[in-house]
Amino acid sequence: MNLFNRSNLPFFVIATFLGVIFTGCLDAPGYPHALQPVESISIMVQQKTDSYSTQLKVNPSDTATIKASVTPEKFQDDISFEWFYTNDGKDSLLSREPVYSFYPSKNEGAIPNKLIAMDNDGNQQIYDFTIAINTPPELSESTIPADGDTLYGSEFSAFLFEWYSFDRDFSSGDTLFHILEIDDKKYDVGTLLQVKQSGFKAGEHKFRIIVNDIYGDADTSTYRNFYIVDTLEAK
Fold first, then answer.
1. Strand 124-128's sheet: what is its strand order?
2. In whole angstroms, what is the distance from residue 165 CA to residue 176 CA?
3. Burial level of 167, CB count in 10 A (0-12/13-18/19+)?
4. H or E element: which one contains 231?
């Protein structure tokens, strides 16, 4: 029985880290009333105790598991799977199981980028995909102002806010975007690492920094409290 309900010609799909759900029945059936039992095959990854996700993104410091999931689930055992690493047109077989585990930073050749799904009659579909290897960004503990600092000025004074963020993936073209949150109000400052802000009344205030990379990974600093002494009022 052809579970894919299609010819033997392979089906190619290019996927990115944004997520992968491959449809298994894109072609029109050969007969008007032919069944289409396999609706889709999803490729998903998991790390640590996180749930499986179709967002193909993994942290290089942790073991990852990738799996192929068939919809409807009742046909899962009727489909065989082969995971490959493909480079320059050459396929290296990694596993013949629906689930495969790998360590992202150990060996590029152990990271799959191709899946062949086959039914019992030898009908197959081929999926090409890419797994993004991403390290979350980090924020330095050092900021201006530091926690507990006292700043002197007035409501018209522009005070400096400065921080430092870093990411091990800069060499791979990653970009960091920042949010400066002051007294529960968020300011999107993009790639800047320092800004000046005025309009503070005398008294206690707080701020923190949130950094995101292009893959959606983030880091958030703890709140820093600072105090404004209004020098105009003092006069």
1. 90-95, 80-87, 114-118, 124-128
2. 8
3. buried
4. helix 231-234
Span 33-37, average pLDDT: 55
pLDDT in tens, 79-115: 999 999 999 999 999 999 999 999 998 788 999 999 9
C-alpha dist (Å) from residue 156 to 9, 109, 145, 159: 71, 59, 17, 9
Return the residue matching tokens 């009908």.
123
CA atoms of 223 and 201, how far apart (whole Å) = 19
Residue 234, amino acid:
A
Q: Is the dihedral of CA 102, 103, 106, 107 positive or negative?
A: positive
The count of C-alpha atoms lying within 13 angstroms of the C-alpha of 44, restricted to the half-sphere facing its C-beta, is 12
Q: Residue 14: what are its φ and ψ, rounded to 5°?
A: -100, 125
What sign does the CA torsion over 18, 22, 27, 29 have?
negative
